[in-house]
Amino acid sequence: MSGGQFSVINNLSSVDAQRNLYFSNIGLNKTLGRMASGYRIVQAGDDAAGLAIANGLKADVAALQQATRNANDGIALIQIADGALSKITDLLVRSVTLAEQSASETVGDDERATINTEYQQILNEIDRVVSVANFKGEQLFNTGAAVTKQIYVGDTQFQSFITVSIGGANGGGTTSLGLNNTNVSTATSAQDLLETLQSAIASVSKWRGALGAQQNRLTNSVAIIQVQSQNLMAAESSIRDANMAEEVVNMTKFQILLQSGMASLAQANASAQLVLQLLR
User: Do 123 and 262 have their domain in common?
Assistant: First the structure.
């Protein structure tokens, strides 16, 4: 009916009710989709600009989470190297004991020979420890210079590296420590060796100190990256995630609109029957 006229050709009241029902049904479906997925943006049409921003933030979060794993791998690498240097320190301390013992004239030649045999085994063990220390099959010490690794801790926006350096010149073996071709077979050689051993222990301690500083840096970087990742996740959540309390209210609203719309449509369709009263 329109303009106070009765019509059976165009039931505009029914058309209007159907149009409102269509939009109420779309609104209810969107609300149910958001409640089921937990996202405010289910389709690109829900918020195209917001979706682009949220996806960029999500990519940054993924990159930072991998950066955390990269930093933890760097920490593991340092710990393996530090474990090897710790063992070398123990061996050097034992060498000091042997040199001190051999330097005394209360020790006979046969006893010095035995002491020197143990000392030579210690030197071989130091070189063995250096040669087998590895991270996933890659040696951590070499015969050239310090081993360096770049740990990538950046995201999709900025590149960022933390460089890890392991060992010193000549890789930390007996050659780099000045112990190559040394012995404690005589009191004199044992006395001279004590100063060299002290220097070697100082060198290893220096390398371990550098490793500890680098490990602390990586540990701090992990903490910083985790805070940054958390903040980006919060920013993404504020854009992408649905407000469940609001969606429950919307669901109730659209359910009522659908019910009232269906009742209105039924009334609009029934109004056309009033024309039959004119034919009686």
Answer: no
